[in-house]
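Researcher: We're teaching a course module on how sequence relates to structure. For the next exercise, students receive a sequence and then see the predicted structure as tokens, so they can try to spot secondary structure elements on their own. Here is the exercise chain.
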Amino acid sequence: MQQKDRQLQAARRIVEHIAVRLGADLGVRLWDASVIPLGIGARSDILIAVNTPDVFRRLLLAPRLMTLFELYARGAIAIEGGTPLEAVRRWDHIKAVGLGKTIDKWLVLKSLWPFLRGGDPGAQASTHAYGGAIARRHEAGRDDRDLIQFHYDVSNSFYALFLDPEMVYSPAYFARQDMSLEEAQVAKLDRICRRLRLQPGEHLLDIGCGWGGLVCHAARYYGVSALGVTLSQQQYDSAQQKIRSLGLHDRVTVELRDFRSVTQPDAFDAVAQIGMFEHLGIDNHDGYFALIHRILKPRGRYLHDAITRRPT
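Model: And here is the predicted structure for the students to work with:
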């Protein structure tokens, strides 16, 4: 039997084995045009196209989410008949997360063996992934500067292509269906300030302040003194320009520093974290909340805004 035939049979075994446990409502099209349903009675109007056997080899050698993104960017994996968002709605995310516990790992490993031979030697030559090393523990002095700058310092003009004029990089608040993105982001900033019950003269800390939208809004309309911290050089430069143009230099400070270096006890009446928590890492949650408790004044207010996913 030729190597290509072995790879095709192995791919079918793996997909069929996963399908029994996933029970999704779509199919997988392999590189020979055969379609395998990912669940009993699954529709085939939306397909995950696996366009090359090297997909399995890459996932075996680097079994992480970024590998899937790279394969999708290269066209090795594609979504046919719908968008990626439509495809992900076709399966139970709890089952997907738990696949590692329910699949027969020995069966999968045996099936993957044919993909270790005859791979594309240049498959890993081009990558968009971050290549640095990040320490896991808050207590160990984790340094995220390189990672954050890798993500955000591609250029402010790039982010301006799809963000609102305030450059707010987190979900907006559409109080009305006819709101523009600009109006909805201003409504979100105002909602944050009201939820924190900000009063003139109070001190606000914005962790991961981005381009300075919240700290400037809070100072202009609620009279607080605000400190924002970011690890992105381009966000910092843009925020400095915003502060100067609005004449807020006496009430707003944005610093290029890690939030872990803000350690003054009882320093802030209010602390906001809007969409930074996703960068933190699960192992660092305890240390993060301990720091927040230390820097907040007694009866200070903390607003936590992070993107989550419903369990079902």
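Model: If you want an answer key for the exercise: Residues 121-125 have pLDDT under 50 and may be disordered. Residues 154 and 234 are 8 Å apart (CA to CA).
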